[in-house]
């Protein structure tokens, strides 16, 4: 794969060289090519995600923009690799980010300013304010949102459900444990989950919300209220997590989210708790909602959305690269593209003003949920995905959640541990 390499520190030397060589030089030809090309760093590596990325490639082809991408599996590796690239002067046009990661890069002074384009296209009235927060820094647009995921979904294989006599999706935590017991007795893996910390934390986000409600979730994770973090309510949530872990696959860190999703798709596992990015995998496997699988909100979170989003942050590139970068931003924010991309990816469009007639039943429902949650204040950033607190606090959260999930600390001690860990880094 090709990366367009720019060394910002050498810009003045390059300008001198360009003046000396003239307009027909190799350097000017390289610059002309770069003016019609974009490079994107992303983590879309699964089959369903690749199908969604093809939608973007086609859109840019129509706009006569060359597209070069560097896929990097996993958010943690992407962050590390991107830091190494930028510190070495290798500046991409854009990179996929999540949550407070956009602010980290903005504070480094390396992101561009899309405010003029945003004002001209009225993005502020199209993107939910809770998501806009991470697309802006100091009032300036620094990135564009491409997909709005919600993470509090319960995915169930219908054939496995029929095998154990499960007639209705679990509507409460107690009903969920009954279903998992039935699956275990029938010789199925009750709950599939990958082995990375963010997956265990994704599960715990839903558990906290389902156990204690949105007001508690916000008190603990928005306000970082010490009493809430160390409370008996948080202890109950950790007890529920520990119990759920006892039904989960014995997964290593080599087991990724799409591996767990495949276990449910193929009927080896009854269910998983996952974001709606899983939908693309079901589609790629030609599985039908309501026939091959069910997807409902995690028990107790029916009126809430814990969201994660893919934001494409735009770097501060040289002026001659900015027209192509603007075309990339315009393509992503185009309503038709938002519908096509997210129909392939499984998420709701990041623009909630788009027409939904072209979306399938799942995405129509997801978009309706987002619109409702946006209106009633129940569109809530996911702690596990960096939409609630910066990375240092998120990592402290991961550490405690993983230890409970792996039975390294007792759930009764976890709330106190979490409160102390967050107090030490906030």
Characteristic terms for this protein:
426 residues; alpha/beta; six-stranded mixed β-sheet; 12 strands; 14% strand; globular; disordered N terminus
In brief:
The protein has 426 residues and is of the alpha/beta class. It has 20 helices and 12 strands.
Notes on the protein architecture:
The chain has 426 residues and is of the alpha/beta class. Helices cover 51% and strands 14% of the residues. The protein is built from 20 helices and 12 strands. The strands form 3 sheets. Strands 1, 2, 3, 6, 11 and 12 form a 6-stranded mixed sheet that branches. It has a 4-stranded mixed sheet with strand order 8-9-7-10, with helices on both faces. The chain has a two-stranded antiparallel sheet with strand order 4-5. Helix 3 packs antiparallel against helix 17. The radius of gyration is 22 Å and the shape is globular.
Main beta sheet, described? 6 strands, mixed
Rounded mean pLDDT is 90
Low-pLDDT segments: 1-23
Distance between the termini: 40 Å
Number of strands: 12
Share of residues in helices? 40-55%
* Share of residues in strands: 5-15%
Give me the Rg, rounded: 22 Å
- Secondary-structure-based class equals alpha/beta
The number of helices is: 20
- The dominant shape is globular
Write the layout of secondary structure elements.
Elements: H1 11-21, H2 26-34, E1 37-42, H3 47-62, E2 66-71, H4 75-87, E3 94-97, H5 101-107, H6 115-121, H7 129-135, E4 136-137, E5 140-141, E6 143-150, E7 153-157, H8 158-163, H9 173-185, E8 189-191, H10 197-212, H11 214-221, H12 226-229, H13 232-245, H14 257-265, E9 269-274, H15 278-284, E10 293-297, E11 305-314, H16 322-333, H17 335-345, H18 361-376, E12 379-381, H19 391-405, H20 411-425
Parallel strand pairs: 1-2, 1-3, 8-9, 11-12
Antiparallel strand pairs: 3-11, 4-5, 6-11, 7-9, 7-10
């Amino acid at each position: 794969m090709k990366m367009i390499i720019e060394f910002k520190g050498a810009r003045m030397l390059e300008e001198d060289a360009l003046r000396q060589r003239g307009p027909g030089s190799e350097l000017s030809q390289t610059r002309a090519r770069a003016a019609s090309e974009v490079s994107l760093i992303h983590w879309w590596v699964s089959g369903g995600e690749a199908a969604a990325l093809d939608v973007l490639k086609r859109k840019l082809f129509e706009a006569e923009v060359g597209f070069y991408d560097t896929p990097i599996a996993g958010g943690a590796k992407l962050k590390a690799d991107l830091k190494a690239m930028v510190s070495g002067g290798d500046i991409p046009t854009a990179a996929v980010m999540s949550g407070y990661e956009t602010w980290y890069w903005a504070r480094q002074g390396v992101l561009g300013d899309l405010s003029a384009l945003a004002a001209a296209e009225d993005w502020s009235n199209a993107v939910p304010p809770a998501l806009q927060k991470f697309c802006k820094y100091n009032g300036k647009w620094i990135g564009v949102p491409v997909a709005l995921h919600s993470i509090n979904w319960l995915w169930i294989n219908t054939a496995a459900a029929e095998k154990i006599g499960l007639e209705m999706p679990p509507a409460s935590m107690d009903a969920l444990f009954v279903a998992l017991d039935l699956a275990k007795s029938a010789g199925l893996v009750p709950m599939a989950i990958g082995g990375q910390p963010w997956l265990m934390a994704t599960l715990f986000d839903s558990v906290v919300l389902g156990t204690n409600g949105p007001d508690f979730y916000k008190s603990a994770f928005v306000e970082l209220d010490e009493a809430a973090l160390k409370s008996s309510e948080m202890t109950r949530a950790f007890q529920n997590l520990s119990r759920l872990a006892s039904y989960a696959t014995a997964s290593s860190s080599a087991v990724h989210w799409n591996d767990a999703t495949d276990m449910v798709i193929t009927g080896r596992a009854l269910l998983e708790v996952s974001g709606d990015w899983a939908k693309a995998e079901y589609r790629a496997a030609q599985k039908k909602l309501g026939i091959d699988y069910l997807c409902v909100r995690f028990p107790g979170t029916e009126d809430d959305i814990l969201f994660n989003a893919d934001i494409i942050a735009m770097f501060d590139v040289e002026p001659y690269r900015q027209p192509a970068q603007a075309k990339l931003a315009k393509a992503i924010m185009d309503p038709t593209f938002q519908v096509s991309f997210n129909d392939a990816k499984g998420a709701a469009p990041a623009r909630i003003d788009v027409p939904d007639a072209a979306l399938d039943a799942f995405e129509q429902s997801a978009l309706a949920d987002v619109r409702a949650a946006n209106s009633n204040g129940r569109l809530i950033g996911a702690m596990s995905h960096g939409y609630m607190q910066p990375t240092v606090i998120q990592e402290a959260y991961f550490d405690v959640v993983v230890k409970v999930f792996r039975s390294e600390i007792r759930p009764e001690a976890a709330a106190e541990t979490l409160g102390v860990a967050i107090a030490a880094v906030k």
